[in-house]
Specification:
Elements (H helix, E strand, L loop, with lengths): L1 E4 L2 E4 L9 H8 L18 E4 L2 E4 L12 E3 L13 H8 L9 H14 L5 H7 L10 H11 L20 H5 L2
Parallel strand pairs: 1-5
Antiparallel strand pairs: 1-2, 3-4, 3-5
Helix pairs in contact: 2-5
Bound molecules: FE2/S2 (inorganic) cluster (2 copies).
Length: 175
């Protein structure tokens, strides 16, 4: 069974098909950004993107990912390690407290901004509403998403990213 995760081909044993995707990516691939909090599909701490859409990896099976592109938080930075503008905005806005919800929050916001690069604060609030933050730092999280939004507008090359800066691999994968 072949999976496509963060632009890489990953071979998984057929016997892994019935395991939860979250368990597989955390324990077999050491991609520990996605977190296991509720484990029952309620909190979105485990969100990864499947073909650009947020999915809760704690309730998805590995076999559900076959034939799709999976993006985890580890795939957001550029190949040179430079943070994605959205990740940088979370830091700059003071949006990270304990950090537990942040990978899922960033990926949900990334999926949203890819479709809407000039959202209202209310639209941002609704887009991230499935993602629960127990530190309740929602205002700064909304600030971060709002700050990063312009970096998702199309440049003249048809690529997303801040004008004048190289778009990250993740951004190019989700134009
Ligand atoms: S850990 Fe998956 S939704 Fe809570
Ligand atoms: S920053 Fe702690 S749960 Fe959100």
């Amino acid at each position: 069974m072949i999976l496509h995760i963060n632009g890489r081909e990953i071979e998984a044993a057929d016997s892994a098909g019935d395991r939860h995707l979250l368990d597989f990516i955390r324990h077999d691939l050491d991609l520990t950004g996605a977190k296991n909090a509720c484990g029952i599909g309620v909190c979105s701490a485990c969100v990864v993107l499947l073909d650009g859409e947020p999915v809760k990896a704690c309730v998805k099976k590995v076999r559900d990912a076959v034939g799709h592109e999976i993006l985890t938080i580890e795939g957001m930075a550029g190949e040179d390690g430079a943070l994605h503008p959205l990740q940088q905005a979370f830091i700059d806005s003071g949006a990270i407290q304990c950090g537990f919800c942040i990978p899922g929050m960033v990926l949900s916001a990334h999926a949203f901004l890819t479709k809407n690069s000039s959202p209202t604060r209310d639209q941002i609030r609704r887009a991230i509403s499935p993602n629960l933050c127990r530190c309740t730092g929602y205002q700064q999280i909304i600030d971060a998403v709002e700050t990063a939004a312009p970096s998702y507008s199309k440049t003249t090359d048809g690529l997303c990213g801040s004008v004048g800066s190289a778009p990250s691999a993740a951004c190019q994968a989700n134009p």
